């Protein structure tokens, strides 16, 4: 399954559109995935909780694994697919503001993002944290089978 097959992936929608979609549902744990507006090629996991939208950067390693940008000192958890990442963060105690509960499904195809040239390839493994994004906190001890590549 590719990213384009995920109904919760909305492509290059704006932060404002994302917040409107999540607020419309109005339930804690409502989420969607969109393209980052600030770092081309990076994705954002956006989660609604108590009238606030928390945005987490989803980074992809050079080997193709996905991870959420974590706080300094927190071990990255790598996921082979975006589906595995979502499944893990649907469980409570994984370091997000709240567990993922209600995916906001897009209507139609995701909005396309700009295709970058090969010589524009950014290094996602050294992305700095910023005030716009929330870092994943340490998780509560959980089943070790969900830690791939550790």
TrEMBL record:
<dbReference type="Pfam" id="PF00017">
    <property type="entry name" value="SH2"/>
</dbReference>
<dbReference type="GO" id="GO:0009966">
    <property type="term" value="P:regulation of signal transduction"/>
</dbReference>
<keyword id="KW-0399">Innate immunity</keyword>
<keyword id="KW-1064">Adaptive immunity</keyword>
<dbReference type="GO" id="GO:0050776">
    <property type="term" value="P:regulation of immune response"/>
</dbReference>
<dbReference type="GO" id="GO:0045087">
    <property type="term" value="P:innate immune response"/>
</dbReference>
<dbReference type="InterPro" id="IPR036860">
    <property type="entry name" value="SH2_dom_sf"/>
</dbReference>
<feature type="domain" description="SH2">
    <location>
        <begin position="8"/>
        <end position="104"/>
    </location>
</feature>
<dbReference type="GO" id="GO:0002250">
    <property type="term" value="P:adaptive immune response"/>
</dbReference>
<keyword id="KW-0727">SH2 domain</keyword>
<dbReference type="InterPro" id="IPR000980">
    <property type="entry name" value="SH2"/>
</dbReference>
<protein>
    <recommendedName>
        <fullName>SH2 domain-containing protein</fullName>
    </recommendedName>
</protein>
<keyword id="KW-0391">Immunity</keyword>
């Amino acid at each position: 399954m590719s990213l384009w097959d995920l109904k919760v992936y909305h492509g290059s929608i704006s932060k404002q559109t994302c917040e409107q979609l999540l607020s419309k549902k109005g339930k804690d744990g409502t989420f969607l995935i969109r393209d980052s507006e600030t770092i081309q090629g990076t994705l954002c996991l956006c989660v609604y909780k108590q009238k606030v939208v928390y945005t987490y950067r989803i980074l992809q390693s050079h080997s193709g694994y996905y991870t959420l940008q974590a706080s300094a000192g927190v071990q990255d958890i790598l996921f082979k697919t975006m589906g595995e990442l979502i499944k893990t963060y649907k469980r409570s105690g994984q370091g997000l503001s709240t567990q993922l509960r209600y995916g906001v499904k897009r209507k139609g195809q995701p909005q396309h993002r700009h295709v970058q040239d090969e010589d524009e390839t950014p290094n996602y493994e050294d992305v700095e944290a910023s005030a716009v994004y929330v870092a994943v906190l340490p998780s509560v001890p959980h089943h070790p089978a969900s830690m791939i590549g550790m």
